What we know:
The chain is mainly alpha-helical. It has a domain at 5-91. It is 66% helix and 10% strand. A hairpin with a 5-residue loop joins strand 2 (37-45) and strand 3 (51-59). The chain is rod-shaped, with a radius of gyration of 56 Å.
Amino acid sequence: MESTAAIEKSKPPVPANEQAHLEALRQSLGDWKPQHSILCGAPLTTPEGHALGTLCVIDRTPRELKPEQAKALHALSRQVMMQLELRRTGSDLATTIIERKRAEDALQRAHDELDIRVKERTVELERALAELRDTQRQVIQQERLRALGQMASGVAHDFNNALAKIVGFNELLLTSPDELNDKEKPETTCK
């Protein structure tokens, strides 16, 4: 028989009278003393079927285990495995919680940094909008002044045209007052 039979899941607890198994169990014990006797061993197997070792009953006096005791040892080995699995699951859970906390912290930092960048960008955009409105007001003011200038130029031109006739008539009066006596000439001149 192989020495691993004691830790195989499908095997029942190994009785003390199987010397090959006992020797394998003795070798697995680090501080084994020859005065101890291994009465029985039950496999410690993970839910996935991996054999981790053997739960042994050791006594100073060699004796035979009763079937109820062997059954209880087997139940105890299952309890040991459940405790080991519980500890492993708890450790995995603690690791997951730590990783999640780190991820949440990183997410919060990223959120805070993004919030700061959004506020900075908002200030920049508000400043740009204010500059744009200022420029728009200046352009509107310049357009109004240009339109006013054009209007004033047109009024001045029209006024100049009307004034030119008056000035021309006045010059004519000053240079040739005799011609004013002729009533038909001024009418033809003005037309």
